[in-house]
Write a structure and sequence with these properties.
heterodimer; A: mainly beta; four-stranded mixed beta sheet; 1 helix; B: mainly beta; eight-stranded antiparallel barrel; two-stranded antiparallel sheet
Chain lengths: ~160, ~210
């Protein structure tokens, strides 16, 4: 029995390690609405300056309306952003500052609770209904994918232009 | 508790009578009643007291080589983790067949290989399940009270049985388990399955038992 003690100890340690795994969350909780920038040649007019097929924003600041925390602070050469939607309401608004112009992007969505595990708790996934902007900086918002989950996928495309 | 004990004693007496009646048969060669001592200790130790599991088994000896088996047990789990708290308790049963793996069968020792089909039904509670929203600074919890969960799994077992004294024997089983039931996406489910282990696609288990031959 004494000879086999280290083996039993090893088995016990392995099983204990297995127990630890069940109480530690190994999944990412980053449920973000991914937004890509583009420019729409269809809305180009004589007094509007587009930057060709430009899809990268020179300078970008993004903050959630009602939050003190800034998501992107004067970020350079940005082609896409990831926005956290609210889990307690069905509309989330963000203040965007692209180069020197500002706009408010409002995303209307539904929230679906998704139980993951005892370690991770519940994630909240979203379904995007509509998205709209207030001023003319964002010309058009296109919904590419309505499902906002913890996987990387483009959800919205913003067609922007700079006067 | 007294009633349960009385039923168990009556069942043991009836089994002994049946075993005696067929003792001389070439096919029927008796029964083994086993009580698992290893798993209760092991599950308690590895879970830090969060899980308890008790089990008894009965098998019959046919032509000294084939052992149809039934195993019954009870388990309960009470665990708090970062994502919430789980409490579940329920019964389980397994049926299966063991075969003697030794060329020459012996009355004193056995090497057994076999298969099991197990099922567990338990009542569960999930409380204070965390829903966090770090950017928007919202922290809420959800409760999923009183739901029933049934699970089914299969097992490959390898066991040893050694005679200790007269009809008294001891042994162990190593079990590789494979869960057949899957959880519904996004729905609350059991953290622990009595008789199986933690909810994973596969699990390893050990029994160390004492038994009595009839």
């Amino acid at each position: 029995m004494r000879k086999h003690f280290p083996i039993w100890l090893l088995v016990l340690c392995l099983l204990a390690a297995c127990d630890q795994q069940t109480t530690v969350c190994l999944q990412t909780e980053a449920v973000r609405c991914r937004v890509v920038f583009s420019c729409d040649s269809l809305v180009q007019t004589a007094d509007t300056a587009y930057i060709g097929t430009f899809t990268v924003v020179d300078s970008l600041t993004v903050q959630g309306l009602g939050s003190d925390s800034v998501l992107y602070a004067n970020s350079k050469a940005v082609s896409s952003i990831s926005l956290p939607l609210r889990k307690d309401t069905v509309a989330t608004a963000f203040c965007l500052r692209l180069n020197d112009a500002t706009d408010t992007l409002t995303i209307r969505h539904t929230n679906n609770e998704y139980y993951v595990s005892l370690a991770c708790g519940c994630f909240v996934f979203h379904q995007v209904d509509t998205a709209l902007s207030r001023t003319g900086l964002v010309q058009k918002v296109e919904v590419l994918n309505t499902a906002v989950e913890n996987v990387e996928q483009d959800n919205l495309r913003l067609y922007v232009h700079f006067r | 508790m007294k009633k349960t004990l009385l039923i168990l004693l009556l069942a043991a007496a009836a089994l002994t009578a049946v075993a005696r009646e067929y003792a001389d048969s070439a096919v029927w060669q008796g029964m083994n009643l086993k009580l698992d001592l290893g798993m209760p200790v092991l599950t308690l130790a590895q879970s830090g007291g969060r899980v308890m599991n008790y089990e008894a088994a009965l098998n019959v000896r046919l032509v000294n080589r084939i052992y149809p088996t039934i195993e019954l047990g009870y388990g309960q789990a009470d665990c708090s983790a970062a994502g919430g708290a789980f409490f579940g308790r329920g019964g389980y049963g397994r049926v299966g067949l063991d075969l003697s793996a030794l060329k020459k069968s012996s009355k004193d020792y056995l090497l057994l290989v076999g298969l099991r089909l197990g099922t567990a039904v338990q009542g569960c509670d999930l409380q204070t399940v965390r829903v966090t929203d770090p950017y928007w600074q919202r922290y809420t919890v959800r409760d999923y009270p009183h739901f029933v969960r049934a699970d089914v799994w299969g097992e490959i077992v390898l066991g040893v049985q050694v005679k200790v004294y007269k009809s008294f024997h001891m042994g162990w089983y190593a079990r590789m388990r494979f869960l057949f039931t899957r959880k519904e996406d996004g729905k609350p489910t059991a953290w622990y399955i009595p008789g199986y282990g933690y909810r994973q696609d596969s699990a390893f288990g050990i029994n160390y038992y004492v038994g009595w031959k009839f």
